[in-house]
Amino acid sequence: MRVWRIPYSTHCERVALAAASVGTPIEWVDVDVYDRSVVQELSGQPAVPIAELDGRIVAGSLEIVARIAPGLWPAEARARAEADIFVDWFERVWKQALGVVYTEADEARVARAGKRLEDYVDRFEALLDGHDYLLGDELGIADVTAYPFVKYAVDRTPGDDYDIHDRLRRYQPIEGRPRVAAWLARVSTLAQ
After folding, report:
1. Of the candidates 20, 13, 24, which has an alpha carbon nearest to the alpha carbon of residue 162?
2. 106 and 180 together in one domain
3. Structural contact between residues 135 and 79, judged by C-beta atoms closer than 8 angstroms
4. Does the pLDDT at position 192 exceed 70?
5. Residue 43: alpha-carbon gap to chain centroid
6. What's 132-175 look like in SS3?
7. Are 171 and 101 in contact (CB under 8 A)?
8. In the β-sheet with 2-5, what is the strand arrangement from edge to edge?
9. Does the pTM exceed 0.90?
10. How many separate domains does the chain show?
């Protein structure tokens, strides 16, 4: 499998984590953050990741994950629906707060959105009560969806100078949230 990425991309890390969970090797193709013409040419849009799977180009981290690691979704209908609701919430609600923190100039709006991100860490702490992973006892799609973003509460990767990651560190404190800290450590061993 070949995947075009921008290094340190949270969306690309979703693919890496999913591939690692099923033992699928990836041939990474790094893309210049300022020149995504190759991605545009291959997929018709500029966002990474894109993957070449079985001779076809697939765009979007969650689309790629669904193709390479469908077992990350529960088989049972109710549990699968809960996982889909989590992913939808993360993509529409959690990421909306991140967008405000990252792009908004109004300090009051940034503070409110930052508080929402902090409150979401409390929700993750509650979800982890009695479980090793966000929705159960095995790595699942909720973990693959959220971990690449939440990890910045503790991650200090050398060479990663993206401002958005600094903001994730600032607004996602894990002090007093031992289950989140343990989850981050647990998933980080799978992500390597």
Report:
1. 13
2. yes
3. yes
4. no
5. 21
6. CECCECCCCHHHHHHHHHHHHHCCCCCCCCCHHHHHHHHHCCCC
7. yes
8. 27-30, 2-5, 50-53, 56-59
9. yes
10. 2
Predicted confidence at residue 20, as pLDDT, reads 96
pLDDT digits (tens, 9 = 90+) for 117-147: 999 999 999 999 999 999 999 999 999 999 9
- For 34-51, b where at least 16 C-beta lie within 10 A, e where not — what string? eebeebeeebeeeebbbb
Determine the Cα–Cα distance for residues 67 and 77; give it in Å rounded to an integer: 19
Give the containing element (helix H, strand E) for 50: strand 50-53
The CATH number of residue 66's host domain is: 3.40.30.10
Reading the block at residue 42, the tokens are 């291959």
Identity of the amino acid at 37: S
Let me know how long the chain is: 192
Residues 137 and 50 in one domain: no
Q: Both tokens of residue 53?
A: 């799977």
For residue 13, what are the domain limits?
A: 2-70
In a shared domain, residues 179 and 121: yes
Residue 175 identity: E
